[in-house]
Write a structure and sequence with these properties.
By secondary structure, the protein is mostly helical. Helix content is 64%, strand content 11%. The protein has six helices and two strands, in the order ααααββαα. The protein has a two-stranded antiparallel ribbon with strand order 1-2. Helix 2 packs across helix 5. The longest helix has 22 residues.
């Protein structure tokens, strides 16, 4: 798992020099949810609010994310992808998928099916709040 995480972090920089793995993940979440508050990002990923704030500020400066007032509560700011953010996310996603296809190209069908099932099982397990990422 450590090697997998290390490879994911390293590949993020190769996919787009300004987009860290955390940034890519946050952009993907914003796209999937069609926007959300920074506090929601922090809660979802169990990150400190200051960490998310720094990441969001960098994404805003890069023109990939913008804040908009919540239509239900004008005091709340909701983060949304800009068109540039959508384009960068799509570009990086295409590159990542191509890299996965290349890496798995010589795997047999049965191995791919089992691998996908194991990933689904791993991701379906609720987060226990432990230090699973260490190692």
């Amino acid at each position: 798992m450590t090697a997998f995480a290390r490879r994911a972090r390293a590949s993020a920089g190769r996919m787009h020099p300004e987009l860290s793995l955390v940034s890519y993940t946050l952009l993907g979440h914003l796209e999937e949810r069609d926007g959300c508050r920074a506090t929601d990002l922090a809660a979802h990923y169990a990150l400190d609010k200051s960490t998310v704030s720094r990441q969001v500020s960098a994404l805003e400066r890069a023109g990939l994310v913008e804040r908009r007032p919540d239509p239900d509560d004008q005091r709340v700011q909701v983060l949304h992808l800009t068109e540039a953010g959508r384009q960068i996310l799509a570009q990086v996603t295409r590159r990542r998928r191509a890299a996965f296809r290349e890496r798995l190209a010589d795997w047999e069908e049965g191995d791919l099916v089992r691998f996908a099932a194991y990933l689904e099982r791993y991701n379906a397990r609720p987060d226990t709040g432990g230090d699973e990422g260490a190692g």
